[in-house]
Design goal:
The protein is mainly α and 61 residues long. It contains three helices and no strands.
């Protein structure tokens, strides 16, 4: 079975990107969200990366 990355429908805060990444790697979505915020504050490109990921990553039907 092939593992695919989708935006989450159940672990969704804004667009489901962090929840989908957490489901893909089988970790807690809160950890992914905290890492995303940390990198957004440190590197500054987190918001743009999130918007791009929300557009590119398909939603799980």
């Amino acid at each position: 079975m092939e593992k695919r990355l989708y935006r989450s429908q159940s672990n969704k805060m804004i667009a489901g990107v962090c929840g989908g990444i957490a489901e893909y790697f089988n970790i807690d979505p809160t950890i992914v969200r905290l890492l995303w915020v940390f990198f957004a504050l440190m590197a500054g490109g987190g918001l743009i990366a999130y918007i791009i990921a929300a557009i590119i990553i398909p939603s799980k039907m």
